[in-house]
Design goal:
The chain is built from five helices and no strands. Helix 2 packs antiparallel against helix 3 and helix 3 runs antiparallel to helix 4. The chain is flat.
């Protein structure tokens, strides 16, 4: 009668070993969006060349890989470091895209730092309020 009580419940550890569809779908989507946007900024309305396409593919693949790695290891990081990682990734992406528009390195760095700091604050707030 009590056989069901001996069955082990599947906890967080069992789920963490199998990556879900979102663990790769979200980074790939973000990488495609960043790569497409980087290509369209560099192209400037002209004809698409191979180097512009390579820039978009490489930058999108790098962002997708970084997002995937951050998503896989975020549960092992304390909330402060996790928020800083999200802020650095977001700020670096925005600064990179802004630098492609022909602005100075200083302007791109300042914009990247400001948006990264905003993401750090927002991510820290979310992680702090949703803590177990």
């Amino acid at each position: 009668m009590a056989a069901h009580a001996s069955v082990q419940a599947r906890g967080m550890r069992a789920r963490a070993q199998r990556p879900s569809m979102l663990s790769w779908a979200v980074p790939v989507t973000l990488g495609v969006i960043l790569g497409w946007y980087a290509t369209s900024i560099v192209r400037g309305g002209g004809v698409l060349t191979g180097t512009q396409l390579a820039l978009g593919l490489i930058s999108g693949a790098v962002l997708a890989a970084l997002c995937f790695v951050l998503g896989r290891m975020q549960n092992r990081l304390p909330r402060e470091l996790r928020a800083a990682a999200y802020g650095a990734l977001f700020g670096g992406s925005v600064g990179f895209l802004y630098s492609l528009s022909g602005k100075s390195v200083l302007a791109a760095s300042v914009l990247g730092l400001l948006t990264g700091a905003g993401m750090l604050i927002a991510a820290f707030y979310v992680f702090y309020t949703h803590e177990d």
